[in-house]
């Protein structure tokens, strides 16, 4: 099974397994409990859920969906987009896996694992998501169906922001010669707007939730673009966050960013808060 841009995921195989062998009741019960524990739950607030249930197809109109995956991408959206206008929290994701566990609380720190949804007050068709929690491979389809599956596909545009280690970037040259961090773009066939940086070259691939989102958009013929920052810093880093700034001129973010000087101040405060939190954790 292939995901977006060449990533190959090995599908489960029953080769060498006796089909006549029945699963023990205890094993079946354990597997069922584990599957239930790994369910992805989307917790929309009452008003937002009511607007969705009132439609005939149980989908809400959405013109723009902006997704930040990881702490640096989410911090970029906090500082330069959420800080520029009136946004309201409309939902969150609750999930559990071997790498993270989220809760239904909306009071989070930049270093926490969370997934929150915001709606632009002046234009309720604009939705933004910060996802710093790891969504496991077996949970990605649930996430896509419960998030993108609730959106009307007509006139929808999607933008994804994420980071990756520079060690994962494939180039004929030595990665030591590259100036990190740097930005690359990957888009679906339906995305016709200009991108704000050079395109990601083959044989590079994207993984995890960003790849799943772009694959979903490709199948549903939704214009979508991914801006992926390659960095040599794995923690929350102001230089990595600012590497996303060329995307501020993109069509999907234009009009949502109003005061970049104020955004820079917010980013500095965010980094200070994070450093203080790290001291006491």
Overall geometry comes to globular
Radius of gyration (Å): 20 Å
Distance between the termini: 41 Å
Number of helices: 7
Assembly status: single chain
Structural class: alpha/beta
Major sheet attributes: 8 strands, mixed
- Can you list the strand order of the major beta sheet? 1-3-4-5-2-6-8-7
Beta strand %: 15-25%
What topology does this entry show?
Layout: H1 25-37, E1 41-44, H2 46-53, E2 64-69, H3 71-80, E3 87-94, E4 115-120, E5 126-131, H4 137-147, E6 157-165, E7 182-187, H5 208-219, E8 224-231, H6 238-242, H7 260-279
Parallel strand pairs: 2-5, 2-6, 6-8
Antiparallel strand pairs: 1-3, 3-4, 4-5, 7-8
Give a written overview of the molecule.
The N and C termini lie far apart (41 Å). Helix 4 (137-147) crosses helix 5. Residues 276-281 have low confidence and may be disordered. It is built from 7 helices and 8 strands. The chain is an alpha/beta fold. An 8-stranded mixed β-sheet has the order 1-3-4-5-2-6-8-7, sandwiched between helices.
Summarize the structure in short.
With 281 residues, this protein is of the alpha/beta class. The chain has helices at residues 25-37, 46-53, 71-80, 137-147, 208-219, 238-242, 260-279, and strands spanning 41-44, 64-69, 87-94, 115-120, 126-131, 157-165, 182-187, 224-231. A hairpin with a 5-residue loop joins strand 4 (115-120) and strand 5.
Properties at a glance:
about 20% strand, about 280 residues, single chain, disordered C terminus, eight-stranded mixed beta sheet
């Amino acid at each position: 099974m292939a995901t977006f841009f060449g990533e190959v995921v090995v599908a489960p195989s029953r080769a060498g397994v006796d089909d006549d062998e029945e699963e023990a009741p205890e094993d079946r019960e354990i597997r069922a409990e584990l599957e239930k524990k790994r369910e992805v739950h989307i917790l929309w607030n009452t008003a937002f859920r009511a607007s969705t249930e009132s439609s005939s197809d149980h989908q809400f109109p959405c013109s723009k969906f902006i997704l930040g995956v990881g702490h640096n991408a989410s911090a970029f959206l906090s500082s330069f987009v959420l800080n520029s206008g009136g946004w309201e929290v409309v939902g969150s994701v609750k999930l559990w896996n071997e790498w993270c566990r989220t809760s239904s609380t909306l009071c989070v720190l930049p270093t926490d694992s969370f997934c929150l949804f915001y709606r632009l007050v002046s234009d309720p068709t604009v939705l933004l998501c910060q996802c710093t929690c790891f969504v496991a491979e077996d949970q990605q389809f649930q996430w896509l169906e419960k998030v993108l599956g609730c959106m009307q596909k007509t006139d929808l545009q999607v933008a994804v922001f994420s980071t990756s280690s520079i060690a994962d970037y494939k180039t004929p040259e030595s990665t030591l010669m590259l100036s990190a961090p740097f930005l690359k773009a990957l888009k679906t066939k339906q995305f016709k707007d200009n991108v704000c940086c050079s395109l990601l070259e083959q044989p590079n691939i994207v993984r995890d939730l960003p790849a799943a989102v772009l694959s979903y958009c490709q199948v549903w013929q939704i214009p979508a673009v991914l801006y992926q920052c390659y960095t040599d810093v794995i923690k929350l880093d102001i230089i990595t966050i600012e590497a996303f700034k060329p995307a501020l001129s993109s069509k999907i973010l234009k009009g949502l960013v109003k005061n970049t000087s104020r955004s820079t101040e917010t980013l500095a405060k965010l980094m200070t808060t994070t450093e203080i939190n790290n001291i006491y954790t």
